[in-house]
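In the lab's daily routine, each protein ends up as an entry in a very long ledger. A line of letters takes care of the sequence, but it says nothing directly about the fold. The three-dimensional part falls to structure tokens, numbers that each stand for a local backbone shape. The outcome of that step, for a single protein, is printed below.
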Amino acid sequence: MISRISIIAAAGLAGLAGCAPVGPFGERAFLESDATGALFVAGKFGNTLARIDLATGRETARVASCANPHELATSPDGAHVALACYGGTTLDIFRTGDLAKVKTIELGENARPHGIVWLANRDLYATAEGRKSVFWVRDPLGTAETFEYGSGQEGTHMLVVSPDARHAWTTDLGSKTVTRIDLLTRRAPQSVEVGIEPEGIALSGDGATLYVSARGSDEVYAIAPQSMEVRRTIPVGDFPLRIAIRPQGDFAITSDLADGALSVIDLRSGTVARQIGVSSRDEAQERFQVTILWSPDGERIYVAETGTDTIAEVDFSTGKVLRRFSGGDGGDGLAILGGADG
């Protein structure tokens, strides 16, 4: 059985064993797929950014990045991908086609940016954990004007932004809170305690419900975004590190690190409909699954297995692991582009 102490200790290790690309039955050959587009992976142990062709599972480009890169976000037009440099103070922007770096945006001393969103309005938003704040970057590829908003909370880690860009919400690991930040009026932020170590966060497509997964209490909370009232508590698997809503808006999944599984939540009933086993519980501590990402059509789920340097591709309807391919050295942050040529 995996203890929470061992999970937290393993999160800080930078020298876990690598793994060659393997299929669902252990074969080492690359497996062709009808998936299209490109997957971008931040290698937090190797300090890299990689591009993977989803049709073949092959890495088509890899470049050096900043120290300890984490979350990624693609631009609305798909031409660029932004990287949060958790080991430093910048947001770095790369072209998706060849991974050439085109912009570095400085956030200031001890910023440690982690969560990142590239909204349809073409502006960037990121947490700065070391400054207990959120940054709004206007025109990131041009003037890159920055505006900082204090959360007042410890461990301001992940975030979502409303489609109208009026509000941002963060999970604050150290303070055990979720915080709403008004991006336009700069009213005082509102924070509420939610479970133990809230980390994962997602906003429904209509903006009506905020979902937060608390890894220390094994629960998901459905929250009213404006009043910050907890409407519903949903028990899920062990150590739910991330939560992601299917593009169709009908289901959400949590990445249950200690189970090596995904809890599938029916958002209409607010209950766990099923669990998908990505690995066994015995394998979970070695694989160390972290970030989860839906394909644009909602048919596949990509799971970053940071400990074995692999990405698992999971079929949502059947729950089967279709294949595994290399995710670089400590692959963690994920972003995706659909289309035949990514």
About this structure: Residues 1-30 have pLDDT under 50 and may be disordered. The two ends are 40 Å apart (CA to CA). The longest strand covers residues 58-64. The chain has one domain: 18-232+303-337.
